[in-house]
Amino acid sequence: MTIETATEIRNVAIIAHVDHGKTSLVDALLKQSHVFRANQQVGDLLMDMNPLERERGITILAKNTAVIYRDVKINIIDTPGHADFSGEVERVVNMADGCLLVVDAVDGPMPQTRYVLKKALEAGLRPVVVINKVDREQARVAETLSKVQDLFLELATTVEQLDFQTIYASAREGWAVADESDPKISMEPLFEAIVKLVPAPKGDPRGPLQMLVAALDYDSHLGQIAIGRIFRGRLASGDRVARITHVPVAGPAAVQVQDGAQPAQALPQYRIERLYVFQGLQRLETEYVEAGDIVAVAGVQDVAIGDTIASVEQPEALPGITIEEPTVKMTVGVNTSPLSGREGQYCTSRMLHARLLKELRTNISLRVQETATAAEFLVAGRGELHLTILIETIRREGYEIEVSKPEAVTRIVDGVEMEPYELLSLDTRDEYIGPLTENLASRLAQLVDMRNDGQGTVHIEYKIPTRGLIGFRSFFLRTTRGNGVMNSQLLGEEPMKGEVKRTRTGVLVASEPGTAVTFGLNVAQGRGVTFVDAGTEVYEGMIIGAHPREGDIVINVCKQKKKTNVRSETSDIAVRLTPPVKMSLEECLDFLADDELLEVTPRAYRLRKKTLSNDARHRQQRD
To answer: Do residues 398 and 346 touch, judged by C-beta distance below 8 A?
Structure first.
């Protein structure tokens, strides 16, 4: 087979820890490659187009773009930096030949920096290190570079990977330099490093077609669109192609196969209706593409991530995409509360099942299993945030669901129950060490390292089981008042031992259905804090507040003040209520106990008991 090099193309993935400046760096590359008009207002974080990405300030999905620099097309893949979305990194590294490892000059290499670099080096990508934010006063450039070198010594798989070039940049200011003393003008030194150091893609343009699908999109007119890299051959609009799938997908035509050549008659065939290449933030339709380019194709139905689009005459499968197993699970079911069907558009188990199967096609690190109950499904992901984003996305689409408390995914190995362990890194002020240490001790955390910079900031590392980490993020943010950074990295599995102590106290449970009124809420606030306002519709078994003691208190918040014929001068003065506690989705999930559920609708989050009837719960406790 003849291997030819496409010298006019470079495929590069941008990888980093969260908030180290990947998307800002892509912004600078796009703006300085003249893909926008001179007077066009484009804003910031151009690749974070998802509303949830904008709201949370993080990248959730990997995305493709491309720029032209001196007649060289540079395909850029922006990846997430949060550990919960590391599956996005795993599925796209196959499309690249090199990577830009972005490291914050203040923070230095962080836990996710290690993970993404490990995956990139295992895939054989040529690295270019970009030390970002060197213009900040707290930047520690020399120390950061030293730590990056230590990281490469630990993770490199070949000698060539140790010989990496370092670029110093400020993505916000829009400049990069190869040496700190060079003039800080533009991103041209970074463009030059990509063109010179990232190898051009290799492949035989005259061989039988092989394209690996790494992402999916949908168009209301064209249907499903497959995005991936052509590793061999040439693809033109109108060509007949075969689909080779490595995982079961929806549809009667799905055939599960292994790597290598496959019998053509056993594979479904399709016609390429449209063919696109990337340019800036747009997709440009083209007539044909050759080996080495990243393309989007329309016309191949029932395609899944990891599939191979191959030649009809000689179909050969590429190796599939390997994804690590999930660590956190929860049950997701249709809403069964008395208020179901009032606020959402999709409320049946059939609709929810179809939506979860649709999510599986693009969210490849997610797992969905059916349970003994037809209306409930077991959903597993990489972490709390991974599952939270899924729930929030489904909610905004009009679904009504109820979810259980998140739990760690365990396995039985040689008769021993194994659970995932993570390395927890905390950066905060030393005044918060006491309450954090006390809380983590109840979560079975083991202190690994502690460093103080002498200026009141401390870095602490703990080894902690994933089940102990669930719910800690909210406590950390409350305790440090937002003055801290928390990161975690999966270490592996160890035998389960010990019990995580629950710190949550009892709750206030509504005893009657109806509308919460001021008089009833005032009585409830004499017992604890409330979660609902006056005028909120409640139902029996709904959690309307919390109190500081053990056990649940059943209370009627719909009870009104009795009328009498006795009046006094001050009897009708309005009762002043304490404002209710409003919790976010993450805080609601952290708050849940084993016998509780969270009702999620497009309009509200409602905490409730699994068994709504107060009498039924009493009988269960008695039995």
So the answer is: yes
CA-based torsion, 107, 109, 113, 117: positive or negative: positive
The single-letter code of the amino acid at 256 is Q
> Can you read off the two tokens belonging to residue 444?
């079975």
User: Do the Cβ atoms of 288 and 234 come closer than 8 Å?
Assistant: yes
Neighbours of 343 (CB within 10 A): 16
Strands 260-261 and 316-317: antiparallel
What one-character DSSP code corresponds to residue 85?
G
Residue 48's contacts (CB-CB under 8 Å, 6 or more residues apart) are 23, 54, 59
Residue 30 · residue 36 · CB < 8 Å: yes
- Which residues contact residue 375 at a Cβ distance below 8 angstroms, ignoring those fewer than 6 apart? 333, 334, 336, 349
| DSSP-based three-state secondary structure for 541 | coil
Cβ-Cβ contacts under 8 Å for 43 (sequence gap 6 or more):
none
**Three-state secondary-structure class, residue 127:** strand
Q: Order the strands of the 63-69 sheet from edge to edge.
A: 63-69, 72-78, 9-16, 98-104, 126-132, 165-170, 175-177
Instruction: State the maximum Cα–Cα separation within the chain, in Å, rounded to a whole number.
Output: 100
CA distance 551 to 554: 10
Question: C-alpha 489: how far from its chain's center?
Answer: 14
pLDDT digits (tens, 9 = 90+) for 295-333: 999 988 888 888 899 998 888 888 877 777 888 999 999
Rg (alpha carbons) of the chain, rounded to whole number = 27
Q: Are 123 and 13 in contact (CB under 8 A)?
A: no
- Tell me the pLDDT tens digit for each residue of 450-508: 888 777 888 899 999 998 888 888 788 888 887 888 888 888 889 988 888 877 788 99
Q: What are phi and psi of 262, to 5 degrees?
A: -130, 150
Task: Give residues with Cβ within 8 angstroms of 595, minimum separation 6.
Answer: 609, 610, 611, 617
Q: What are phi and psi of 379, to 5 degrees?
A: -115, 130
The DSSP bridge pattern shows strands 457-465 and 446-452 to be: antiparallel
pTM across the whole model? 0.81
* Tokens found for residue 181: 């003393």
